[in-house]
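ESCALATION

Customer reports they have been waiting on this structure for their group meeting. Please prioritize. Original submission:
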Amino acid sequence: MKYLKHDLQKYKLASLMAPLFKMLEATFDLMVPLVVARMINVGINQKDTGYILACCLLLILMALIGLACSFTAQYFAAKAAIGSTTGLRHRLFKHIQSLDFASMDTIGTSTLITRMTSDLNQVQNGLNLFLRLFLRSPFIVFGSMVMAFTIDAKLALIFVIVIPLLSVVIFGIMAITSPRYRKIQGHLDRVTGLTRENLTGVRVIRAFGREEEELAAFSQANDVLVRSQLKVGHLSSLMNPVTYVIINIGIVAILYAGAGQVHAGVLLSGQIVALVNYMNQILVELVKLANLIVTISRALASLGRVEQILDTQPEMHYPETMPVLSCPEEAVRFEHVSLSYAKASLASLTDISFEAKVGQTIGIIGGTGSGKSSLVHLIGRFYDASAGHVYLNGADITQWPREQLRKHVAIVMQKPQLFAGTIRSNLLWGNPDASEAQLWEALHLAQAADFVQAKTDGLDEVVEQGGRNLSGGQKQRLTIARALVAKPDILILDDSASALDYATDAALRQALASLTGKMTVFIVSQRTSSIAKADHILVLDDGHLVDQGTHQQLLKCCSVYQEIYASQFQKGEDHT
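Update from on-call: job pushed to the front of the queue and completed.
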């Protein structure tokens, strides 16, 4: 509750006004049976039409005032609930942005989506109902009992028996269902995750004819969710019939005991009607309270899940000041670096050591799963090494401030990611202050200028979410251009030319080689032709650095490199 309380502080007045107006409405509701009793005992009994009309007008006036109080309470409750959960949603989104890759991998994307949507909606609904009903319903229940004592103390004892019985039923069912709602949200995470995977991978699923298997997997997860919801629903559904039975038994008891007193002249029929009305009010309010408690139970379970994310702190910490760069000519240095991902049984990288000078082009090659991406992710400090040290310009990478590190290192991921907007807006992610000339320069270097110029709106051409309206090669070239706009000191191309044809790939490498300055380029590739002219090549195999050197050196002495090269070119043919 600590995070919600902080955001609710801004809406103190609304949080107080909502229950106060509801209590005022409840006060008028408690007065209604008394007015009806007077109407029966005086107006109807004495056939006084004027008195009956006066009572009717009074009831209408009380209803209008109660309606106005209800609207006012709803306004303040909605303002406080929506406003505070909006603040909580912003806080959660900002916190997610601060989490490192390791934390994101552990939590899972589908879980975060559920927290941001379903869970926060549950919290908002629960808070709204809490502010409107949590004080009103108990006030009506105990107020009805007090008013019953003002009418007849003996008959009011029935209320004393009925209310505790109802409380046992309500809170007992709540205690059983509350933990089950937490499990339901966990099953919802699974369904959300499968839905997300199917939507993002729909083309792959159709290409391999896996529709039936995916439908079966989704149906299984959905069935688990449905069964869990039905079990909780069955338990919760017991609340209404049980409470109705108890209330109706109480009404029968009032009528049975009250009939004798009316016959004896101790009570008037209007007072019995008032007692029955109070019992019915208790029934209605306790049903509301029961439903409210179920909603609050779900809201508290969802709030706990949101706070679990907010309590998750990133493992990486960044200093505020730049370190002393003891070796500015040394771009990157790995010293006995190892990396193990969270919950992984085996290390992804083991005892990696190498050095890259400023201005060099470093090629990284190896089989699938050899650790190429893991290695370059350490240079951008998306993960911290499990053992050993990574140095940039002679300073330990953990001593670099986040902003300076992001300006120093630019990485183009394996999977190109573009955002909804325009080509211009996507390129400006690299440098918000870049001029149009700088954007076109980056596009020319990335071999993307031709297809951008062919677009009707050029740089202002619309890009759909994820770049759906662009081909794979176009997306890769735009992401490379975006990185070049930033003019980083270290540029990492993580297999980011895999969708390009050989001619475009060669032109891209030639353009990067023509860059003046001291940019250090890391090229991760499956193609030996893409890294053959690199100044230094790292060969990885199963997380180990098996060899390093130039293309010609590795062809002579590295069996892994020889095998990769031979698989791509015919024997005796050199395409470097």
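Sent to customer with the following note: Residues 2-311 form a domain with the ABC transporter transmembrane region fold fold (CATH 1.20.1560.10).
Escalation resolved.
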